[in-house]
């Protein structure tokens, strides 16, 4: 599952699943462009990667500031062929349909749908011209089962599945595959700092494997989808959920 000779852009690479992707991609030979809004965590990851001897470029950017994102991504596009794009960055604004704050709803839609669309629009043409490309979008099991009190997040994560399948149909004949992974409950800083233990236990109770996963367990699947071993897989939305959400 070598990624040697490829350059991957990973969003939200400062911690959690994005950081795990950066480390696994680097260990498999990829060069990296890493984006995050948190300069401190991003810097720590970049230091780790440079110690591994990898070429890595990082940009601190708040991705939902779309004009800034476009400027930065165009500059990256002019410097290097990004042939692997991992749309991972995300955040949640919990709330029910009756009470959800509209600004929060729009921000969640933006980070999980509009930002991936924007990056795909910028980097997909280069992949198509090269005749090889990989786009992996990080969804969520909530995108297929919905979540009580998670109306914005579930809607956004359903949206990224539709985007994944549509783009896969558009660019498959040019050698570009587009897939989504749908994590279940993963032990990342987002979950460790903001989810109450009783909610974690309820999800674990609904998970066939009866545990949370480590971020590397998702990142290894993303690395597989980015590799030539996944050469005939496109348009999938692959649960990495330990059996949470089996339909
Ligand atoms: N952890 C889970 O249980 C779980 C489950 C399902 C899906 N996911 C999805 O996995 C992805 C990664 O989640 P995680 O758990 O690793 O989260 P995390 O909060 O631990 O890490 C997310 C990273 O994205 C960055 N980020 C967030 N908003 C940003 C913005 N506007 N601009 C730039 N960077 C931004 C953060 O700074 C952070 O470094 C997300 O899309 C999330 O929805 C996570």
Explain what the structure shows.
The chain is α/β, with parallel strands linked by helices. It has one domain (7-236): NAD(P)-binding Rossmann-like Domain (Rossmann fold). The chain is built from nine helices and seven strands; from the N terminus they run E-H-E-H-E-H-E-H-E-H-H-E-H-H-H-E. Strands 3-2-1-4-5-6-7 form a seven-stranded parallel β-sheet, with helices on both faces. Helix 1 (16-27) packs across helix 9 and helix 4 packs parallel to helix 6 (151-171). It is globular, with a radius of gyration of 17 Å. The chain binds nicotinamide-adenine-dinucleotide. Nicotinamide-adenine-dinucleotide is lined by residues 12, 14-18, 36-38, 41, 62-64, 88-91, 111, 138, 140, 183, 185-186, 188-191. Nicotinamide-adenine-dinucleotide binds next to helix 1 and helix 7.
Briefly summarize what is shown:
This protein has 247 residues and is an alpha/beta fold. Helix content is 49%, strand content 15%.
CATH topology type: Rossmann fold
CATH H-level superfamily: NAD(P)-binding Rossmann-like Domain
The end-to-end span amounts to: 30 Å
- C-alpha Rg (nearest Å): 17 Å
Major sheet characteristics = 7 strands, parallel
In DSSP terms (H or I, runs of 4 or more residues), the helix count works out at 9
Ligand inventory: nicotinamide-adenine-dinucleotide
CATH class: Alpha Beta
Summed over residues and divided by their number, the pLDDT gives a mean of 97
Silhouette: globular
- How many individual domains? 1
- The helix/strand series, from N terminus to C terminus, equals EHEHEHEHEHHEHHHE
Stretches with pLDDT under 50, minimum 5 residues: none
Strand content: 15-25%
Structural class by helix and strand composition: alpha/beta
Q: In order across it, which strands form the biggest sheet?
A: 3-2-1-4-5-6-7
CATH architecture: 3-Layer(aba) Sandwich
Total beta strand runs: 7
């Amino acid at each position: 599952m070598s990624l040697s000779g490829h350059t991957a852009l990973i969003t939200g690479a400062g911690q959690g699943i994005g950081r795990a992707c950066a480390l696994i991609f680097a260990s498999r030979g990829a060069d990296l462009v890493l984006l995050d809004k948190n300069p401190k965590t991003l810097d720590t990851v970049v230091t780790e990667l440079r110690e591994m001897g990898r070429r890595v470029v990082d940009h601190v950017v708040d991705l939902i500031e779309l004009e800034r994102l476009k400027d930065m991504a165009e500059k990256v596009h002019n410097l290097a062929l990004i042939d692997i794009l991992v749309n991972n960055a995300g955040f949640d604004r919990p709330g029910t349909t009756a009470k959800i704050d509209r600004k929060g709803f729009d921000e969640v839609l933006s980070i999980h749908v509009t930002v991936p669309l924007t990056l795909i629009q910028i980097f997909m043409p280069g992949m198509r011209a090269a005749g090889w490309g990989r786009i992996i979008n990080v969804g969520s099991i909530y995108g297929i089962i919905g979540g009580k009190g998670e109306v914005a997040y579930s809607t956004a994560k359903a949206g990224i599945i539709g985007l994944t399948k549509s783009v896969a149909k558009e660019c498959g004949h040019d050698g570009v595959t587009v897939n989504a992974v749908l994590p279940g409950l993963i032990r990342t800083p987002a979950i460790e700092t903001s989810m109450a233990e009783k909610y974690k236990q309820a999800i674990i109770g609904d998970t066939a494997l009866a545990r949370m996963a480590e971020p590397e367990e998702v990142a290894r699947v993303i690395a597989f989808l980015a590799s030539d071993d996944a050469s005939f897989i496109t348009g999938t939305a692959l649960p990495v959920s330990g059996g949470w959400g089996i339909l």
